[in-house]
Amino acid sequence: MEKNNNQKKIEIQNPTEKKESSSAKFPIVGIGASAGGLEALEQFFSNMPADSGMAFVVIQHLDPTHVGILPELLQRVTDMHVQQATDGHIVEHNSIYVIPPNKSLSVLNGKLHLFTPVESRGLRLPIDFFLKSLANDRSQNSVAVILSGMGSDGSQGIKAIKEKNGIVMVQDPKSAKFDAMPSNAINAVIADVIAPANELPVKLLALLKLVPTAESTESIDEKSKSHLDKIIILLREHSGHDFSLYKKNTLFRRIERRKGIHKIEKISSYVRFLQENPAEVEILFKELLIGVTSFFRDPEVWEKLRNSIIPEMIKDVPNRHIFRAWVTACSSGEEAYSLAMVFKEVVEKLQNQKGLTLQIFATDLDKDSVEKARAGIYAENISAEVSAERLDRFFTKEVNGYRISNGIREMVVFAPQNIIKDPPFTKLDILTCRNMLIYMEPELQKKLISLFNYSLNPGGILVLG
After folding, report:
1. Considering the entire predicted model, what is its pTM?
2. pLDDT (tens digit, 9 = 90+) per residue, 359-379?
3. Among 17, 50, 151, 453, whose CB has the most other CB atoms within 10 angstroms?
């Protein structure tokens, strides 16, 4: 008997996923700096050759009233042309562009675009804003560098760079005048390089020489496939997770990046390196599970859930009904908590005369991510994703960020789970899978869609990314 004919599906297409244009050939390096950043920037550029073939965009997180003299200061330490970024300027290699005061900066098709900031309250996050656009525009040819600074600006942007297989470099916090920005960046992702500012240029140049372009990994020869299989075996022995049905080119590109970091040329040598270094197996495992998420990601989807989908679902259910939801690949918990907040808003708006509740099961393969999600503590830069009203209602302000409120936290059960082999949750009303299927081969995608179909009640909602 066929099941779940009435299930609804919300599918989200990512408009930024596009083939790289001819303009996106050379790397663009986005450099974020704040307090103490001038010294770090001078150390960086005085050690970067003028003919590196890269373009550099410097995003300083400064007071809006600050007078911009940074281009003149940097010009003293480099032979590259340094200029203040202007609207519509086409980015050229071997050049440095500096964000003007009181502006936000973005890049599209290799062209810079200036915006007047609209934030009337709270935190401005110009580094995150630029790095997210850079990730979408340059993909694997994007580089993020986080230098000295206070706060957490840049921590979300480097996640986007990682998702697109770009390079993330961070100034060693011990060498930074202000270590908050570098420390928050290191906590957000696995940085490819952590080093003093004056050492980052030579490490970046070496890494770019060893890491192939996307085009060179489109075809994988049989010998490399054999070594790739050996790496998959080592990962399975270490984590218990089978990557054999993940997209081979995605696996291969992540492996090539790790080879480049360790200056290993042959994949056979990297297999040996993994055998001798269990810590590297763990790092590679986490690299393959890059958890790129945020609160209310794709806001239009959450608005649809809030304004029509969930209100429609709760119309005909009996009093005291408990809705069941499963958030797969939950990473650090933002999506699960977003769902809890939206549900609470809906039932409160309808005065919840039926006494309805929502139980969310949120799972991820990475135990460390699950622990972070359980803690429910997030950096202050979530204010760019979460409205002031929601921050006041659903979070508690702490010294360096926000903690999710107990009322929302109690709606979610977090647990480690291998979705491919562990038993699924069933009798669900809502199931979300936002950032996992794109990394899997069609065979595994088909298997999981069937599993999701089995898990949902008739009329249940499936939200895909």
Report:
1. 0.77
2. 999 999 888 889 999 999 998
3. 151
Q: What is the CATH number of the domain that holds 67?
A: 3.40.50.180
End-to-end CA distance of the chain: 29
Domain annotation covers residue 23? no
Total structural domains in the chain?
A: 3
Q: Are residues 298 and 337 located together in one domain of the fold?
A: yes
The whole-angstrom separation of Cα 144 and Cα 122 is 24
Phi, psi angle pair for 2, to nearest 5°:
-75, 140
CA distances from 199 to 42, 60, 116, 206, 259 (A): 12, 20, 34, 11, 19
Q: DSSP for 331-362, please give it.
A: TTSHHHHHHHHHHHHHHHHTTTTT--EEEEEE
CA angle 64, 66, 72 (to 5 degrees): 130
Q: Distance (Å, rounded) from C-alpha 263 to C-alpha 405?
A: 46
Q: Smallest Cα–Cα separation from 45: which of 231, 198, 260?
A: 198
Query: pLDDT tens-digit profile of 276-326?
Result: 999 999 999 888 876 678 899 889 999 999 999 999 988 888 888 899 999
Which residue shows structure tokens 């908590």?
337
Spatial CB neighbours of 182, under 8 Å, sequence gap ≥ 6: 146, 147, 148, 149, 170, 171, 172, 173, 176, 194
Q: How large is the average pLDDT for residues 229-251? A: 88
Q: Which of 287, 314, 331 is the last residue of a domain?
A: 287
**Can you give the pLDDT at residue 291?**
66
102: helix, strand or coil: coil
Distance CA 135, CA 350 (A): 40
Q: Can you list the alpha helix ranges (DSSP code H) found in 305-439?
A: 310-313, 334-349, 367-375, 388-394, 406-409
